[in-house]
Amino acid sequence: MAAVTAVLQSEWTKIRTVSSTVWTLASALIVTVAIGAALSAVFNSTFDDLSEVERLTFDPTLVSFFGMTLGQLAMVVFGVLVVGTEYSSGMIRTSLAAVPQRATFLFAKVTVAGGLAFAVGLATSFLSFFLGQALLGEHRASIGDDNVLRAVIGGGLYMGLIALFSMGVAAMLRSSMLSLGILMPFFFLVSQILAAVPKAKEVARYFPDQAGSKIMQVVPDAMNTEEAPYGPWAGLGIMVLWVVAALAGGYLVMKKRDA
To answer: FRET partner for 240 with CA separation of 20 to 30 A, picked from 48, 157, 207, 226?
Structure first.
């Protein structure tokens, strides 16, 4: 137990002393809250211009989370850098020499970085919600309304899971550049485009971001979107499966290959 505690402390020291990881978490919070607030103000001023269907399915909670489309990319960068920087700098050889038990090493890194990502994700989610609702005026929702608290907490879980998924991918690819080259276009372009293509969207709705983001919806077919074949918690469960698969793959690669 003492050894595990020491590894956890060493991982915490690595994260808090590297400025890039701190800045990416700060960027995730600022970008998500700022964009969510701006779009909430826009929806409040243009609400009467929406179609009747869009007004009937208006989801004020989801609107305040619209900034996560970009904010999640900062979480991707954070997850990748936590793992990939050790490979690009050669620090991984020193780390594994100090902690030969690779399961313990990866567990400590995932626990510390994942816990930090979840904490920042929850802070981001609550700030986005309360600021967004304040700017939505008479169209706002209350934290006490049905399913709203679930959506707000779910937003924090979603951002934390994005970081964990990115850590798993980076552990498998062992390269920050390659990981970012795959994950950034995937979350920003590929997943969004395929979700709009008639036949491809049947597959795209099971992608980690598409499935996991359902937890932030209070209205099932919000803003005239199509209803998914699963509920909010089932969607988050699908995302968890992606995260488990990515981390398991990362562990197997770390176990089988030399540093």
So the answer is: 226
Neighbours of 103 (CB within 10 A): 11
Give the model's confidence band at 196: pLDDT under 50 very low, under 70 low, under 90 confident, else very high: confident
Cβ-based neighbour number of residue 17 at 10 Å: 9
Sequence letter at residue 110: V
* Percentage of residues in the chain having pLDDT higher than 90: 71
Average pLDDT over residues 118-122: 97
Report the C-alpha gap between 50 and 137 in whole angstroms. Answer: 16
Instruction: Look up residue 141 and give its DSSP letter.
Output: -
Q: Which amino acid is present at 112? A: V
Q: How far is CA 233 from the centre of its chain?
A: 15
Q: How many CB atoms lie within 10 A of CB 45?
A: 11
> d(Cα 206, Cα 183) in Å, to the nearest integer?
16
Q: Where on the phi/psi map is residue 101: left (φ > 0), alpha (ψ -120 to 50), or beta?
A: beta
Contact criterion met (CB below 8 Å) for 175 and 87: yes
CA neighbor of 109 nearest in space, from 85, 74, 73: 85
**Integer Cα distance of 126 and 111 in angstroms:** 22
Q: Which helix (H) or strand (E) holds 5?
A: helix 2-17
pLDDT tens for 158-172 read: 999 999 999 999 999
Residue 107's pLDDT is what? 92
Q: What is the pTM of this model?
A: 0.93
CB 168 within 8 A of CB 249: yes
